[in-house]
Amino acid sequence: MTTDMKKHEEPMSTATPTRAPHSDVPTGHRPAEGRVGAGLFDPGQLLKSLPDAFRKLDPRVMVKSPVMFVVLVGSVLTTIFSFKDPTDWFGWAISAWLWLTVIFANLAEAVAEGRGKAQADTLRKAKTDTVARRLSGAAEERVPGTELKIGDLVVCEAGDIIPGDGDVVEGVASVDESAITGESAPVIRESGGDRSAVTGGTKVLSDRIVIKITTKPGETFIDRMINLVEGAARQKTPNEIALNILLASLTIVFLLACATLPPFAEYAHKHLTMVVLVALLVCLIPTTIGALLSAIGIAGMDRLVQRNVLAMSGRAVEAAGDVSTLLLDKTGTITLGNRQASEFVPVRGTTEAEVADAAQLSSLADETPEGRSIVVLAKEKYGLRERHQGELADAEWVAFTAQTRMSGVDVDGRKVRKGAAGSVIAWVQQQGGTVAQDADEIANRISEAGGTPLLVAVHDDQGARILGVIHLKDVVKEGMRERFDELRRMGIKTVMITGDNPLTAKAIAEEAGVDDFLAEATPEDKMALIKREQAGGKLVAMTGDGTNDAPALAQADVGVAMNTGTSAAKEAGNMVDLDSNPTKLIEIVEIGKQLLITRGALTTFSIANDVAKYFAIIPALFAAVYPGLDKLNIMGLSSPDSAILSAVIFNALIIIALVPLALRGVQYRPVSADKMLRRNLTIYGLGGLVAPFVGIKIIDLLISLIPGIG
Amino acid sequence: MSPVLAGVLQLLALIAALALVYVPLGNYMAGVYSSDKHWRVEKWIYKGIGANPDTEMRWPAYLRGVLAFSAVGVLFLYLLQRVQGALPGSLGFASIDPDQAFNTAASFVTNTNWQSYYGEQAMGHVVQTAGLAVQNFVSAAVGIAVAVALVRGFARARTGELGNFWADLVRGTVRILVPVAAIAAVVLVACGAIQNFSGIHEVGQFMGGSQQWNGGAVASTEAIKEVGTNGGGIFNANSAHPFENPIPFTNLFEIFLILVIPLSLTRTFGVLVGSVKQGYAILATMATIWIGFTALMMWTEFSHHGPAFEIAGGAMEGKEVRFGVGGSSIFAVATTLTSTGAVDSFHSSFTGLGGGITMLGMMLGEIAPGGVGSGLYGMLIMAIIAVFIAGLMVGRTPEYLGKKIGTREIKLAAMYILVTPALVLIFTAAAMALPTPQNSMTNSGAHGFSEILYAYTSGANNNGSAFAGLNADTQWFNTTIGLAMLLGRFVPMVFVLALAGSLAEQKPVPATAGTLRTEKPLFTGLLVGAILIITGLTYFPALALGPLAEGMAS
């Protein structure tokens, strides 16, 4: 644990948001270790949060955590009883450690919140009071940004801070969104389409846009973000509430066990003091998880924030752990954004090298990614040196355009062209040539395999003819297959969503290793798919950015909207990815799972701890009246007082010791539920049984060294 | 053959016999509760009580059925005892005092069968047969009905309906308890248990003096007493009495009867939820605890040192010579791990630790395998708690058998596990804090405390066995134990049925590779651990001052 922690340790700074560097955004497979779980923890933060921990002693705050509230009441009681008998060092020592137990619990929460506060401060700086240039009719008036209403039109020009959330209705501009995303490269925002949303607090760098305000001041994205990272908007999640109920009921059970003990003990001629009873109670109630529960929740949200994902509700983070179906957009998530040339297929009578040469030559004037990939393939596969346009002196270049869908070159009386099948065939026929029969067959074969065929043609002294076909295909991102295998082992089904025809979709789905695909997908199809999965009891996660994704995003249990998307999409989803990286959906699921595992692991640990504490305290209390019970003192603790005190000290220290784990989350590996349970039960179940035996014994040894005690 | 070997062989024979009937009986019971046909005799009963067995009930209606039926049972039994003196066939016994009548009525309706009276000196044939024996059947049937309702909660989806209480009650009685008890009674009669309605006989003793023997419908009462995990015998000596339990074979047979329905119900559960493996996992959990406790009990009873023990081959005080240490140990564990409370030996005379094992068995909530029905639902509640705590460790919000364990479910389960510890501890503390209740103790010191702790543990958990020694026929004990029995039976049932209703409304979550596999041995181990730690540890301080203090002293 310690070594692992060191690895991820980074100094915290209040000046910059603590988020992962952008190179950290996964583009493919990375080693399992550290993919999630790389939360930050700095011991110095403990000290810094100490004042907050004291502030949280307010009973009105404490009562929200029933377990720790009981400890607080216990601390007060033991302190009062210590004042009654001020010479009793034992009462004072127990009181002190009980107070420390409460402080440690508050400290855990304060540290977790502190990390968000630093980020909120940065955001607040971005939210300076802006003056909006509101349009009324054709006239422009200057009003404070806080007076804007939904539907107002405002103008922003280069240098202006955008006064509120809205959609661009006129113009194009480059916008600096670093205040929110931490990404310094400007982004383009334009009216219409899926890149129309702008966020208040970001800065226009060039041009002029007209924005229609879509959010009330005070409820803007940046406001919500501040609330979120500060934890002000934090509500307990359903599972957290349920766990709190269980912990409260265990607390009541142990309260009963301790409260009923005095009459039993009196009968045995043993008087139990209030200090001892409170010590026993605090050791038995699940203080470890009670102290760390809210810190775990806050840290879970924070881990998402570190990955530039804003969860609008804690419920969504929990739901992410439960997701059993992932809808993934093909482009950008599963495949690289662009298709790439993968082979050159000659028609009868030509050679592959001839096709490669002509394809390269004709693609030099094609600056599209597809065109570049043809040049690269020819170079890599056929050793054809990339020629530059300047090398060929009297060449006449035909650049690729969306209209002609063809590029090429006329040089030395030879005309070479490559492009979409229809365009090239038309060109050959226009040049008076004939189209080889097998060209059509090859093109069809490539289509069926899920690729895109481009024809290569030449017009030279042998006339105009087709030389061959370039096979363009979607390239599945590296490591995706392994990722999907992992997801399958975790019990998550992946569905690829694509606008491609079913043939193409099937080929890519097979190559990428997804479980299912939805081809020629319309927003309605997506919606229907989600509803179908949900009807079977499954939880669905998806990403989306367009306005027509909004209904599906709202329907999905976890809907991650891309920050580049429309405000409708952002409004509909329950998470926003500031990096707009759809692959992150997988990580979101893993973070959700990690949050739940951490909660379960610490609960198990906390409850398993009780066994050892009984073995420490019961013989200490009763061996004097029933000497046989000393056989239960299997740890061989030095004296009754020391035994009880050691248990109380262990109980307090274990909280602080587990703060890093609570904040970082337990290590998570994508394996089956069986393996995960076995592993975690061994570590936290058995570990929880054994650890306190060792810990209490060590503390007892140390205490027995103090002169006058033991 | 050494007594130890004899004990082990008896245990093995018992396991083999239980294994043999597990599948057929479990499947048969599943059929009983899912069939849509009514037997003719059942139709008569429905007509008689004016119930429509074909309407589906939501949980509040089902609960109203349970409570109304039981309330009528308590009232009827109370009045029957109060007028006994005026009834014919009462062997001349007088009417029972109000506090004892209340205690006994509560006791038999709650399937506890705590007896603060001496059977052969207080209850005549009418009360025994028309009152107590009837409750032996129907209180058991109520328990199974509630368990089946919970199982339906798991098995059904998108409905709040849990079946029909009256149909479940009548079928459980007519199709399961009556036939099984009838067969068992014949076996017992064949082995020497008595079955008659004769009066009291004066019999001269070898050593001079005389003894009174009564007759009674002993074999039939004995059969349902064990099959329905009731435990209330006709004679005060209970199954130690030769008329109830004449020979070693009947002893083993009675243990078999105690365990057979609670264990086989796990099969019924598996069949009804559509996965017999889930039933096996619950069975394995119950069997692990039961066999573990039995082994511990034999070990502590056999290994006890001292001249008297060594001559007798173990701690023989309070045990019948014909059953020996082995047979008595197996019986004691089976009766306290179920809600039976029948005894063939005196738990008070067991070694200190042995007495502790009987108490711990009850304190675990009697779930391994527990009372008929109540054992299954108690175990399923613990499974829910275990799933909730450890299930998170697979990275999903907890679910059991395809149902999410959310806030509402955990709230009900948490309240369920609060009830009995609260009753046991608060009543015991009250008895120890007040001056008079301690006058009922026979022993002083840790053993005396055990007598009172045992009484409330037995009452609140609806076991009914006594530690012997405690004079429980006082107003204080009759009233408080009576209340403990009623609250310990029906308050948990409220939570179980509410939980069943909540589960039945959910839509099921399909199992994937990411789902916690609750049919695996790993989960069984986890469940055993959760039961021992969460329920067992609650009582650790109390146990330390009673049986542990005594057992560790030597």
Automatic annotation (TrEMBL), chain A:
Residues 129-230 form the P-type ATPase A domain. It comes from the Bacteria. Mg(2+) binds at D545, D549. It is found in: Cell membrane. One of its GO terms (cellular component) is plasma membrane. It is an enzyme of class 7 (translocase). It holds the Pfam family E1-E2_ATPase. Its main location: membrane. Residues 1-11 have a biased composition (Basic and acidic residues). Keywords: ATP-binding, Cell membrane, Hydrolase, Ion transport, Magnesium, Membrane, Metal-binding, Nucleotide-binding, Phosphoprotein, Potassium, Potassium transport, Translocase, Transmembrane, Transmembrane helix, Transport. GO terms for molecular function: ATP binding; ATP hydrolysis activity; magnesium ion binding; P-type potassium transmembrane transporter activity. The system is composed of three essential subunits: KdpA, KdpB and KdpC. PANTHER family: POTASSIUM-TRANSPORTING ATPASE ATP-BINDING SUBUNIT. This is Potassium-transporting ATPase ATP-binding subunit. It comes from Streptomyces bingchenggensis (strain BCW-1). The gene is kdpB.
UniProtKB/TrEMBL annotation, chain B:
Keywords: Cell membrane, Hydrolase, Ion transport, Membrane, Potassium, Potassium transport, Transmembrane, Transmembrane helix, Transport. GO terms for cellular component: plasma membrane. The chain crosses the membrane at residues 61-80, 176-197, 252-273, 280-299, 323-343, 350-368, 374-394, 415-434, 481-501, 522-544. One of its GO terms (molecular function) is potassium ion binding. Its main location: membrane. It is a multi-pass membrane protein. Signal peptide: none annotated. It is found in: Cell membrane. InterPro entries: KdpA. NCBIfam families: kdpA. Belongs to the KdpA family. The system is composed of three essential subunits: KdpA, KdpB and KdpC. Part of the high-affinity ATP-driven potassium transport (or Kdp) system, which catalyzes the hydrolysis of ATP coupled with the electrogenic transport of potassium into the cytoplasm. This subunit binds the extracellular potassium ions and delivers the ions to the membrane domain of KdpB through an intramembrane tunnel. PANTHER family: POTASSIUM-TRANSPORTING ATPASE A CHAIN, POTASSIUM-TRANSPORTING ATPASE POTASSIUM-BINDING SUBUNIT. This is Potassium-transporting ATPase potassium-binding subunit. The lineage of its organism: Bacteria, Bacillati, Actinomycetota, Actinomycetes, Kitasatosporales.
